[in-house]
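anyone seen this seq b4? input:
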Amino acid sequence: MKRFVGILLIAMLGGAVTLGLSKIIEKKELPVQYSYSPGVGVPVHTASYNPSAGFNLPDFETAASVSVPAVVHIKTEFHRKSGVYNDWFDFFNFGNPVPDERMTPITAMGSGVIINSEGFIVTNNHVVQDADKINVTLNDKRIYIATIVGADPSTDLAVIRIEEKNLPFLTFGNSDEVKVGEWVLAVGNPFNLTSTVTAGIVSAKARDINILGSQGAIESFIQTDAAVNPGNSGGALVNTKGELIGINAAIASGTGSYVGYSFAIPSNIVRKVVDDFIKTGKVDRAYLGIYYKEIDAQFAKDQGLPDINGVYVQELVEGGAAALAGIKKGDVVVRLNNMPINSKSELLEVVAQHSPGDKLNVQVEREGKTIDFPLTLQSENKIVATNTSVIIQDATFQRITQKEKSRLHIDDGFQIIHLDNGLFRKAGIREGFIVTAIDRQPIHTAHDLKEALTSKSGGILIEGVYPSGLRVYYGIGN
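predicted toks r here
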């Protein structure tokens, strides 16, 4: 009996130690790193069990049989590392770079999705950017040389084409109708393993993970728990009907491999970009003409807003679609075409699905009233210059007053009154900064600012002052 009690106590102690260790392990957090990645994998999910009906498992066979033939393997060759691929290659050791990269090309792997029978394929921009040669291998092992039809860093999408007809292809699903918790399949070529199918569910929508980093970047990813690994970039995310609902693009990982989060570009954005490239060879992006701020509890309190729903209109572009429709500074956008808007990424996703000239209904809250504003979207003007202001994608500059010139003892300058994520913010610049000179050349007019910020392909030196009087220099590279 004593022996039995002793064994029992040891077992209980062992269980307690194990539980304690598991709690320690659960609390230990690895730093999260977002990486360009292709792909998706196979987490284990528990299906619901109905004693009378048995396990109710989803059927992926049809979706897999439809999608696998339409997903291709992409091999690219570079004679130099592009800015996008530098860290990617080094981190994952793609292509085994040799010491003399000037003589031997570097190779990388990715995936793509055939979107019509005429040989058009969509993939990620970071898969093919700066490639000297693009090889495409079909599921039946036929190999082709592809050419780039168009590439869009703002959405990380590219369209390439091979000279072949009567190809199997995927049809687009409606990503707006995708629901959190819905089963999905990811199809691609992780670790150079061709025609790999993995399953997961949609974990979240409209995720902005700030991975693209470029001015004007559009991020509103579908998040899944499907495993993503190197080689799946540009591959398909499909629903159980075999419809394309996203293009796999990135992972969140502290190790570089799958840890539970993957991200795909919604198919409604993909369809718009693909159609533009096939029709005109370039993206014709719609422009709403507002600058906005996401609302949190503190901001709502400061502004006297009744709740935290919607996106706050901070500024409007003079002559822009929103201003012409009657929207005002201080309005809160709550819906676009009846789609709820609660974040920057949701707003960008809806606008990015449309073309200039499309009609859009904007619903706003103003002084306790709900007002609908029908408007016609304009073509995106990357730079809009007037005598007093200039807008350069992620930053809005406004000429300072004579009073400010006198107070700060400067001849002239343009103040940043609104700033999104982009090159300026990455360089450490904050809202309120007044640009007085660029590359040692004084800035007196909106034209001066426009030319100085856009006419050079290399880095620039920005000189200026904050309203406090602090003078600062910033170096910005492209």
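Residues 33-44+175-267 form a domain with the Thrombin, subunit H fold (CATH 2.40.10.10). The chain has four domains: 33-44+175-267, 61-161, 286-379, 383-476. kinda curious what u guys think
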